[in-house]
Amino acid sequence: MKLYTDRGNFKSLKVIAALEFTGLSYSLTECGLEERVVPYLSGTSLPVLEVSPQRFLFSPNTATRYILNKKCDEDDPNIDKWLEWESVQLQPYLVRYLVSVLVHKKPDTESLNRLQQLLKFLNAELKSKSLTKTKDCAADFVLWASLFPVFKGAAEIKGWEGQYSNIKSWFNTINNLPCCQTALDKVIHGGDTTCLKASLNTQPVPLLETETRQEEPVQKSKPQKVKMEKPSETPTPEESLLTKEASPEEIQAAKESWLTGKSKFPKPRERKHPILPKSGERNLLITSALPYVNNVPHLGNIIGCVLSADVFSRYCRLRNFNCLYICGTDEYGTATETKAIEEGVTPREICDKYNKIHAEIYDWFNISFDKFSRTSIPEQTKIAQDIFWKLEKNGFISRDSVEQLQCQQCLRFLADRFVEGTCPLCGFDDARGDQCDGCGKLLNAIELKDPKCKVCKGIPQVKSSNHLFLDLPKIEDKLKAHLNAQFDKGIWTNNARVITNSWIRDGLKPRCISRDLKWGIPVPLEGYQDKVFYVWFDAPIGYISATASYTDRWEQWWKNPKQVELYNFLGKDNVPFHSVIFPCSLLGADDNFTVVNHMSATEYLNYEDTKFSKSRGTGVFGHQAKDTGIPADIFRFYLLFVRPESQDSSFSWDDFQLKNNSELLNNLGNFINRALMFVSNSFGGQIQEMTLTPADFHLLALVNRELASYIDNMEQIKLRDSIRNILSISRLGNQYMQANKPWVLVKGSESDKRRAGTVVSLSANLATLLSVLVQPYMPAVSDTIQGQLRTPPQCNVIYKEFVCQLPPGHKIGKPSPLFEKIETPKIQELKKKFEGKPAPQKNASKASAGNPEETQKLTDEVAAQGNLVRELKAKKAEKAVVTEEVAKLLALKKKLADLMGEPAPAGGKQNSKLAKKESKKPEVSSSGTTANGAVDNQEVERLTEAVSKQGLLVRDLKSQKAEKSRIDSEVAVLLDLKRKLAVAQGQDPEALTGGKGKKGKKK
Amino acid sequence: MDELNSLASYLGVSSGKLVLDAKEQIPVLKAGNGLTVRGLVSVAKQLVRQSETQELKGTTAEERAAIDQWLEYRVVQVDRSLQEKDVSTVLRDTNAYLSHHVYFVGYQPTLADIILYLGLYRIFEDLTFMEKQKYVHVCRWFSNMQSLFADKMSKKHIAFQRNKIFSGTGH
């Protein structure tokens, strides 16, 4: 059996006593105060007895009884009764009383009264000197353990021995049992019950009885009082921070570090290049996944690795660790080569262009690389080939021939993504070489039916080509040994572990590391010299080459696993390359390489509720962030606030606005600005003498608690959580100001004024601390705060305790607001700007949505052709000619109709104009074409001409914007002519005029 | 009190000596031989002892302990959860537990199921269908229990939906 308990939990007494009494073997596991052991209970509930694996008894009373029954089975109703009495009646008041005495140092008389009543009852029941007929039963241990803290030590109810003599003799008998003494030794060392405090403060307080009691007339006044007190028991979150308890030890520690901590405060480390590992120090090598060069990174890419690694490395520098942060662009491979062909330049030029774009973006985001390199440098070739040769020498390179598609027209082997065809599994006709979008299955390019080259649409042929393979199965054991050790002691995000484990579990296979390309690192092996290395073989080597381009002593970092810790930051899609393939290359090379120790992989960041998409223009891309006019630090803050740490998260403008306005502006900015304005306006910008009260030290203790949690979260690379610690500290600060009201004090007596001086000066010191903590997240804001405070440069270290950095007499600078409110119209504008085009739909509507120019062009052509036909007719041109032109006109119209998508939507000006033409033209042309078969050919002919003549006249008048009366009269003539024509053709003239009438209205 | 009377009639035992302690509002059973049992759980257990259905107590020591702790959970947790936050903790925790268990203890209904069914009744009466969908496991259990006990203990049936009627709540 296994007992889980936190330190100093008095409820463990009974369980341990029972375990000792029976002599059963058990193990004791000490947990953190708030640790959850039972998977299905959402809150903490300790102690817990694990009876058999995953079977828990979370009720200590039940556990005690269960243990004792192991030795001597009973089913005694009296024991039921006493255990129920203890849990239902005694516990709620007992715990409340203990909390009030040991934690709050203010005995709660209400609970004490209740306890006294309960003890009186127990005393009466103990007339027979024992609780039940069974000796040393569960009821004895349970009650003994509960009563011990109120009978002995700091929370003793004075005079209980005299009042409750029956209890006294029973209690002493039990208390003297050796098993109870052993239990006491383990839980309450030396009989000092103050050690129960932390546990009492954390474990849930048993709920009180329900209203049924309130109906009792006798009790009426008391429960009401209980009810009145309730709000203070569950305070609103705004109130809760300052009223949180701090233990005397915490307060003492905070006091000491405030008064004397400055002497222990370390000096900031100078960042002097080149940074090299030093023995006896923490040497951290931090890498961010290399962004691929042919794209502009979006905000998701930025938070995924570059920005996360930046925050962590800035934190490490502030902690005085010896750390090096490197990154660069990944440049080799098919994608670059293709892009270069598209743009008609060399791959090198493409890389130069995009490397610059990347560097500029990261510069704007204030990413402080020690080196931002690129993979297309000579060092890369040298190191990659060197690693290859070592792998070859150690027998980890195998050879095999591979069937590949080669395009006869482009004269090159096609990478998977450059082949399209029909899916062999589901018959989907637009499958890609690596995956079918129809059924989602992964494919091999040569399996595709009817493959086509994506670039030239030519039909590629299957050719075989010899390739080199990294023999992963042979290195697997080394890899496993390394990973198992690192999983134990390193920081690995859950997704990194899971993805890595699933790769290894599925079995490693040899992996092809050569490609038939030009743009890459040449394979140096004879017979393969026309090939280059696969981009994923060389990309991670970019970390090494970047270091090599930074310092010629790069081997001190990369061949030094004993002294260097390697941290990889990346998106989850890159995990296997960093946790399996690259480590295998390094371990296989067997040259004492530094191999990954920690891996922080992020999930994906979505944009609003969709994905970032370059082609659709959805989402904010690196270079556009600058154009929003919002400072980089605000982007940094928000991206880190929603960092997709354990699950996908999304960038939302509304939330962005909310976080800026509520957290930065109203919380952090407000506190710092308020504190500084007070120092500046009321005390001439001078820090005052600070005489701290116990309440102030209490604040310091709470700040220290947040600070410790900040450091802890950072060490675990929980970057989101550390932000919350910062915000909690400034929230504490705000509440501190609110509680002390320096604006009132400053107008009061001399001593009030001194108190105001203390409050604002302490707040200014708190602002100094915040300026340091905020630095990894918002470096520019940190600079601004420090400029306003004129902080000494020595304060830029994150130390485990809050110390006074601004001594009395220190002059601060001029305060000004740190953040700007982001207004809703601005957010609306940005939302619209970056929402992008809707996802493209297939078929006709695509063209109409995407191509207004085309529509306009066709409309013009139709109009011109229409005029031509009309003129020809008016000039009585040859019938054959007219018919031909009419045919052309009809073809154009059909094309236009197709382009518009059938029922041309009315509403837009252009559309209604078109609709008008549409309905009008056929009349003209039909009158011409059907004329042949009409009753009176000549009459029809004559009328048709007259109609078209008159029509032209009307149109001309309209286009010249002639007087309305004139136009109307000519229109009337036209209508009359048309009616006559219709009659001549044997049609219903009313139908026509009806149509006309509508049109007239529309106009 | 009503609950214990229903339980007694379900078990086919007499609850004749059952009274309510007026001051403390605690049920008290005079069980004969000078034995007086106080408290809901203790009385319920005593009623089972007097009945023919011993299997409700559990058959092994482990089962009996597990039943005991859920009975205690009923009186200290369920009955005292009046605020919304406490009620939702109860629902969340029992729901999590029952996602892997058919009954609270073992493979057949026990006293723990009966007492928790009776205790949770008041909470389930107030649940919306949306909440019922959220706590699907404990609802499945409750629905199962009411088909076993409701009629015999003259409790009204509470309606549960059979299908998911609300689409996913998250993103």
From TrEMBL, chain A:
Keywords: Aminoacyl-tRNA synthetase, ATP-binding, Cytoplasm, Ligase, Nucleotide-binding, Protein biosynthesis, RNA-binding, tRNA-binding. It is an enzyme of class 6 (ligase). Residues 854-910, 939-995 form the WHEP-TRS domain. InterPro entries: aa-tRNA-synth_I_CS, Anticodon_Met, Glutathione-S-Trfase_C-like, Glutathione-S-Trfase_C_sf, MARS_N, Met-tRNA_ligase_1, Met-tRNA_synth, Methionyl/Leucyl_tRNA_Synth. GO terms for biological process: methionyl-tRNA aminoacylation. Residues 72-208 form the GST C-terminal domain. SMART domains: WHEP-TRS. Belongs to the class-I aminoacyl-tRNA synthetase family. This is Methionine--tRNA ligase, cytoplasmic. The lineage of its organism: Eukaryota, Metazoa, Spiralia, Lophotrochozoa, Mollusca.
TrEMBL record, chain B:
Residues 46-166 form the GST C-terminal domain. One of its GO terms (biological process) is positive regulation of DNA damage response, signal transduction by p53 class mediator. Pfam families: Arc1p_N_like (PF21972). It comes from Magallana gigas (Pacific oyster). This is GST C-terminal domain-containing protein. GO terms for cellular component: aminoacyl-tRNA synthetase multienzyme complex; cytoplasm; nucleus.
